[in-house]
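ok trying again, last paste got cut off:
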Amino acid sequence: MDVDLEGIIQCIKQGDESGVQAQLQGFNKEFAQCFFFDAEERERRKQRKLEEFKKNKVREYTDSDSDCDEDQEDRGLILRQNLAVVLLRFIKKLNKGRLLRVSLRTLRILSRDKKVLSPFVTDGALQTVARLAGLTTCDEGGDEAGDDDFYDSVVASLAEAKLSRCRTYDDDDDIDDEGDARAGDPSEECPAFDDDAKSDISNANSGDLDSISWMGSHRTSVNDSHRGSIHQRMLERGRRDRRESKMDVEETEGDEGEEDSGEEVQRKEAMKVLCNVVYNSMWAQERFSALGLMSGLIQCVSSSISSSSPSSVQFYELRLIFLITALRPELRAQLKQESGVSVLTAAMESCLEVQWKEQFECVLGPAVTSISLEASQRIIEILKILFNITCSTHRQEPSEDDAALYRHLVAILRVCLMRKCLLPDETDELQGHAVNLLSALPLQCLDVLLMVPPQPDSQQCRGVNMDCVHTLLMFMERRLESGEKIKERMTPILNLLTESCRAHRETRKYIRKYILPPLRDVSHLPEEGSTVKSRLIRLMTHLDTDVKYCAADLIFVLCKENVSRFVKHTGYGNAAGLLATRGLLGCQGPRPPSSEGLYSSDSDSDTEEYRQVKDRINPVTGRVESEQPDPMEGMTEEEKEEEAKRLIMLFNKVARDCNIHAVGVDSEGKLVPMSGLRESSLIEERESGSENDGEGEKN
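nice, full thing came through this time. structure:
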């Protein structure tokens, strides 16, 4: 469907609102789930042109179908850019009504394309859309007396662009890449821009983020987002599409709701436009910060908390806050300074409908219902925002007021971990974001997770309620079984459990009993099997450094950072990486006194089965190995000496030719070359000898 931009302008000039609405509704229906670019189609056209050139040895543009495609592509881009310019000016004078909502929906569809963002990123356009979204009451004023001249200039620019293309194809049979680039330059294609728009064009498409379907699931590549085309690609059905959320009914059915919901639909459409523009343009992000729109956004969220039934706009308000705090560090600080943590905590408390039993204890029982789809979406956005603004507080010592605020937040996060959503995938996602936030909060505030009195059916350890810890273990086990995106999905939960084990003795004992039960069968390698322990040990040799050290650190802490116990459970081969990094290769007992953990002095009792085969366990592999024949059996002493010399020669040859050197463990437990180790030993012998000589002289 081509855009009848001239027809729309004529309807606007004649005051025919029904005509404008009908044409925009047709556009919206056609492109409701489409992007305006398709890199695959462009690549296919390039391949056809290359094959044609190889075949004919000349580019015959007049007879090529690709010329028509490029012509249509340029025309479609020009029409969409000018349509955005016209609508952004048109909506300034519209009051609440269906036409305004339809216009905003068209702008939202257009804002998916980075090449059309130029008119969106002016201060005037941002303030207009922000006003319609309810973020501010002010709008950039302007002299609207020249509307007729403005629309006439748009029509004239379209005619001029069409004429210039005709002249180009008539006069020049070879269009180079530079010409194609000029055809995609918004500053040349849209002379109807006002001066403010022209000043922002150079920064309009400077963002390096990709486009997104604001139902939250489909994302395109960065290369795709920079290419314009009239060949549309349908959006993939994503997670939020499968939820069949009531929030999105009006997108497919139109504005068929009651009149009193019209303002809510209007605000939501305007908020989606802001989300698209902010996500796709760095310049829009900077202007959003400079125009002070964050304060209005916080005020909107704060106001919606007190309402009896939160509107569907709140989700997009939270989505916009998440985007802007993820992209602009100064706005994270602003949100935190303006009581953002308390406001967002109250919003999450409202979504969960929390009922307090004690200061840090919420009511959790069989009567508590599952979290609704709409509420879980809002909670997830809140958790992501809170992570953005608290990610630097983990190692900081909070003030008394901040500590109380964080403990209140942790109590609500316990509810997020313990309650279920309507869909299992939704529950897993919610718990994942709760774990991310818990790992970012000060460690001393996490004791709230264990402060709930145990119930008869609770998981316990020494009288302490372990229900929340058990939920975290189940969450970690599900992530281990999935095996997808190991680094992103595993490191937060591994770090959280490790720090909790260091800080709380009961937590460590409970988790150790679950992950590292007493050894009985040592006939298999520690990394073999489907248990949680074997899966974690397999991660200790993962290619990603962060993953393997997080997994090793958890098991090391569960072993009270005792080297011999750690090697006993994992095998020396699996443990060597962590021990070498920490300089513990030469240690045979507990870690040096600099350890952060405070562990009891109880010993690790061995089972009867383990004691029976202990002497036959290979410490490198961690299992009982079958007896191997002696390779030197039957050799004379001279033959053994010759074999030793041959091995030494081979070692020297490898070290000389392949730059591979033998290493050993120094007195600090670190790996060093054997040559350096030998020199250190000689120096220590000289020093000890000189000390002995000095003592002899004194005596």
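cool. The first strand starts at residue 34 and ends at 35. Residues 292-452 form one domain.
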